[in-house]
Amino acid sequence: MNSTVTEIPKSRITCVLDPDWPLVESSRSGDVSAFEELVRRYDRKLYRIAQGITHNNEDAEEVVQTAFLKAYQNLDRFQGNARFSTWLVRIAMNESFMKLRKQVSKKEQSLDTQNGFHADGNNHSQLDLTDWATNPESLYSAAELKQILGACFQRLQPTLRVVFFLRDVEGHSISETSEILNLTATAVKTRLSRARLQLREELTRYFKKPTPK
Fold this sequence. Notes:
The chain has 213 residues and is an all-alpha fold. The protein is built from nine helices and no strands. It has two domains: 10-103, Rna Polymerase Sigma Factor, Chain: A (Orthogonal Bundle); 114-207, Arc Repressor Mutant, subunit A (Orthogonal Bundle), CATH 1.10.10.10. The longest helix has 23 residues, at 32-54.
């Protein structure tokens, strides 16, 4: 006797596992309070991401407002193929990069050709990987350290910056970062490695060991 196994669509599985799905469904039905709860859940997260990309508080606030507005207006288009939070973050990131493009006078160069990096993952620029001082905190105050780290982070290429932010600051896994950015795991790992190397190069000028006299 043959039995037929019905395959459950991936979108339905995602919806079942998505903790936001009940609120999304209620929001679609006109429950404003349900969408307000979604805003409370992700307001700060979207702001951190937007600020990390644009490095401008006013732009970040505008990005968050626009992202939630677009999400609300397009709830019927959300199919549940990814988690709602992933879909929402993508909207915020797109808005952030649109803001960033308005900040610069020329288009951003391709990730794989800028700064001497190529698709094969080899870095053809000379990185200064001098050992750091044992305790950088002894060289600078907490406020100075924060300022240094912020300046170095800002100098990262935006497409590298967002991978580093999602993975090393927000704590998303490689697979989660891949899903949010719609990249392969290999691409995420490569960009993360580049971001970390560039950050170390930037920070080395501040934290390298003193040259013995």
